[in-house]
Amino acid sequence: MMPAADERKGVARLDVAPMGLVWLKGPQRVDFLELERALSMAAIHKGSNAPLGKTSASAVICCPTSEDDLAAELSNIRVSAPDASVLAFASGPNLQLARATLRAGASGIVHSGMPPEQVLRAVSVAIRGEVVFPREPLRQWMDEQRPPDLSVLSARQKEILELVADGLTNAEIAGRLFLSGSTIKQHLRPAYKALGVRTRNEAAGLLRKSSRTKERR
Question: What residues does each domain of the chain span?
Answer without folding.
Answer: 4-139, 150-211
